[in-house]
Amino acid sequence: MSYILSFFNFIQGLGPTVMMPIIICIFGIVLGTEKGKSLRAGLTVGVGFIGLNLVIAAMSSNLGPAVQQMVKRFGLSLSIIDVGWPAAAAISFGSTVGLIIIPVCLLVNIVMLVTNTTQTIDVDIWDYWHFAFTGALVAIVTGSQTLGIMAAILNMVIIMVIADYTAPGVEKTLGLPGVSLPHGFSGAYAPIAIVINKIIDLIPGVRNIDINMEKAQEKFGVFGEPIIVGTVLGAVIGIVAGYSFSDVLKLGITMGAVLVLIPRMASLLMEGLLPISDAASEFINKKFSNRGKMYIGLDSAVGVGHPLTLSVSLILVPLTLLIAVILPGNQVLPFADLAVIPWMFVLITPVVNGNGFRALLTGIVVLATGLLISTNLAPLMTSAAINAKYALPTNATQISSICDGANPLTWAIVRLNDFGWIGIIIVAVVSIGLALINRTRILKDALELKKINDKPVQMN
Description:
Elements: H1 2-13, H2 16-30, H3 35-73, E1 80-82, H4 85-93, H5 96-114, E2 120-122, H6 129-142, H7 145-173, E3 179-180, H8 190-201, H9 213-220, H10 226-240, H11 245-287, E4 295-297, H12 307-326, E5 332-333, H13 341-345, H14 348-351, H15 356-387, E6 398-400, H16 408-416, H17 421-454
Parallel strand pairs: 1-5, 1-6, 2-4, 3-4
């Protein structure tokens, strides 16, 4: 067992830019793709991820100082520090649950595939840390590592079902064929977006409001293009931060570049995935006629490049700071994770079908709620950090993050476990129920697909 854990720890330590090409290459060979094509596909995916990381790093390194300047300029002072997702991931993998999370989640994925309770082959094993984060907090609440591991598994099951349900929207709206996004952070907001979307549909007048990036580009021409929108929003953030004229221009052009380059890096990544996706579809059609369509599960970074996702996220950066100050009960100072707001919107965008008004309204609701959640979970995250030997920032008594400290699904699972075994049983009933509902849908879709494929072609 120790050798197995050491192997997975080594793979995990390589990071996603190395780990993903290896997994994709091996996966392609297993599915029958030529070795050369599999190698090229894996390397192309790796290049795409490196490109995404470079552009995202540029966004974060430029937004971070702007946010810090806003905090200083307006004298914001809140007691809980947002330490960011890298700290949350380090805390998760440093926990007891995190040590075994990769082999456990791989096994869960295999079981779900065999039982037809998912259509997603989740190769994004780096992001299993989101499930480990939930498990680590549950272990602290209950004092039981067993309950922590169970919570992590049930969290994954729910996210896999959400990934399946949102996959058609990911294909249509985000332009990612054959891809689903079983991401523990992004996936948690899809159900909330669905509920808010349904509520808006019931309100006369409001339901007709549609701010669409494609329509905006048609209406405003060059001024509706992502490069202009990103530049303007970046400049506005610079002005709010009190930047000099030259720094405002630099931030504006950088954000314009981000809106242009992220989609191009994502398309490069998709170029590598296409042959693997085609091989997966062919393999499933040959070996498992009752499986229907299958998806490759990836990091939601591949979907952050949608113009609406990035535009709404940039608008919400200063708004989130304002909400943090005026929201009763909030003690979290948003900082390090403001740059990950786009990940929150990756699956919200397809749910609202690219409607900017609905995305912005949903964003305000989930961020306000998320600040209260992160305030509530801060003592547990601080304890988890101490257990994982994570060094707290100087003078910080409590820490949290927007990712995953503000995650509503994590919060629900953790707080249900305040009731111990009763709580984990409730979570299990919900997750297994969702998996069975998903199985019924998968089998139904597979039957309909089989009827279409078996239908004789009429000759004119």
